[in-house]
Amino acid sequence: MNALTVSLVALVALTGPAVQSEDVPCRTFEEIYPSGRELCEKMWDGAFVYETNLSAAFTMWFFEAENPNNKVSERLGWPSADDCHLEYFHKESPGPEPDNFTECHPWKDYSCCHQATVSSVQNIKEAYGKEWHWDRCGPLSSACERFFVQEACLYECEPNAGFYRKFPAHIYNESDPNHNKWQMEGMPIRADYCDAWLRACRYDRFCAVDSGSYHSCAREYLEADKLTTGEYGVNAGLVAGVVVALLVGLVLCGTLGYFIYRERKGEPVFDKLET
Ligand SMILES: *[C@@H]1O[C@H](CO)[C@@H](O)[C@H](O)[C@H]1NC(C)=O
Ligand SMILES: *[C@@H]1O[C@H](CO)[C@@H](O)[C@H](O)[C@H]1NC(C)=O
Ligand SMILES: *[C@@H]1O[C@H](CO)[C@@H](O)[C@H](O)[C@H]1NC(C)=O
């Protein structure tokens, strides 16, 4: 019976994933994005713009005590960032965070995000739903993953990001289903930052749908996940695997029973081996 249990588990493991397999294509970053420009602009569906004029470009990370993006905003004619504008997990207005605010540390003193939102890489990765996990094509190298964490920190914590809300308060129409309060558009990002991102991720793999559009990928993953995950949260692939395993198990039991029956009757199916 132990052997049967083991083979059932093995069969489920073997047949389950085959049924679940998603048809969302994966390629290396260097195959998907010809340059840092496409990575910043295409991957984020226009939220960011590749900017070679560095005095007019924001950075997704910094080490200075004072946030250098404030100066950039000033040069671009924005007022000081006293509100967060974007609405996802964001606070209403920026402020300091406790000492354990380490993952997005550049923004500790003046942040639009709560510590709870960005307390760990795992938290950040899982905050937006399974379809947005950045490692759906396999684990990323730590060098590459770092950039996804930095982008998430910029999005959740950077007060200046709020100036680039796609549907700002004066345009946002609550009854228009195409409008939202979370999307960004056209934030100029330092070209060298985008180039570095591609260098770090070059050999890592990412979803290649629609030239590597993160939004299009998330849409496809959502569909794929619906197919493999039933209405009640039951994994259809796993269920199919269990059914196949049970059928195989039944056939095995039947065969074994037949052998035993023949053996008892003194008509073994296999003659005893001479020793
Ligand atoms: C770079 O951006 C700054 C700030 O907006 C602007 O004053 C300057 O003219 C730009 N330089 C070039 C070469 O476009
Ligand atoms: C971080 O510090 C805050 C305030 O001191 C506390 O509420 C929170 O539980 C701490 N830990 C984490 C993991 O956020
Ligand atoms: C807001 O959106 C709704 C639905 O699309 C539309 O009927 C209405 O005219 C819009 N209001 C304004 C002020 O644009």
UniProtKB/TrEMBL annotation:
Keyword Disulfide bond: yes
One cellular component (GO) term of this entry: external side of plasma membrane
UniProt key word Cell membrane: no
Residues passing through the membrane, by range: 236-261
Pfam families hit by this protein: Folate_rec
Signal peptide residue numbers: 1-21
GO MF entries: signaling receptor activity
Chain ranges of the Folate receptor-like domain: 84-211
Alphabetized UniProt keyword annotations: Disulfide bond, Membrane, Signal, Transmembrane, Transmembrane helix
Family stated for the protein in its record: Belongs to the folate receptor family.
Protein name: Uncharacterized protein LOC109466647
Source organism of the structure: Branchiostoma belcheri
Name of the coding gene: LOC109466647
